[in-house]
Specification:
The chain is mainly alpha-helical. It has a single domain, classed as Arc Repressor Mutant, subunit A (Orthogonal Bundle), CATH 1.10.10. It is built from seven helices and three strands; from the N terminus they run H-H-H-E-H-H-E-E-H-H.
Length: about 160
């Protein structure tokens, strides 16, 4: 579809010229693809991101973990509680600060990630599949650039180590 197509409704043309509208819509599409591919695992994309982050860096506190994937403290707490209920992560008090709880992925969580990897990757691949192969890496670079350049405007800025 092209904005130059005379069959495109004018109302859609106005929306289609708004990056925020298109980004939100693409996110909705990706989440649907992820849910379709990964339905058997009963894991949301955010939960998958949390498990992935904990697989790479165990024993993260809630604030650091949220900052690494760009979700707020309340959302992080809810996600961690649901993952802990399923035995996919474990939480313990920090030896340095007893008020702080650390999260770590369990063996069961790692096993689930391994089982999910191909299907989750398929959802990611399907999201960019309509683009020509030679444009996919550039699209991801542009997305990364936009996120990085405007990161501080997010409700929960992303802070990578």
């Amino acid at each position: 579809m092209s904005l130059d197509d005379p069959l495109i409704d004018e109302a859609y043309r106005v929306l289609a010229e708004r990056p925020g509208f298109l980004i939100r819509r693409l996110h909705q599409i990706h989440v649907s693809m992820f849910v379709e591919e990964c339905a058997e695992f009963n894991i949301t994309p955010v939960q998958y991101s949390v498990l992935t982050a904990l697989a790479e860096r165990p024993d993260l506190d809630q604030v650091t973990l949220g900052a690494q994937i760009g979700i707020d403290r309340t959302t992080t707490a809810g996600v961690l509680a649901r993952l802990a209920e399923r035995g996919l992560i474990q939480r313990r008090a920090s030896p340095v600060d007893k008020r702080m709880r650390l999260a770590a992925i369990t063996a069961e969580g790692r096993k689930l990630l391994r089982r999910m990897d191909k299907k989750a990757q398929r959802a990611h691949d399907r999201t960019v599949a309509p683009l020509p192969k030679e444009d996919r890496a550039a699209f991801l670079r542009y997305l990364l650039h936009l996120v990085d350049a405007s990161n501080d405007y997010g409700r929960a800025p992303l802070h990578l180590p």
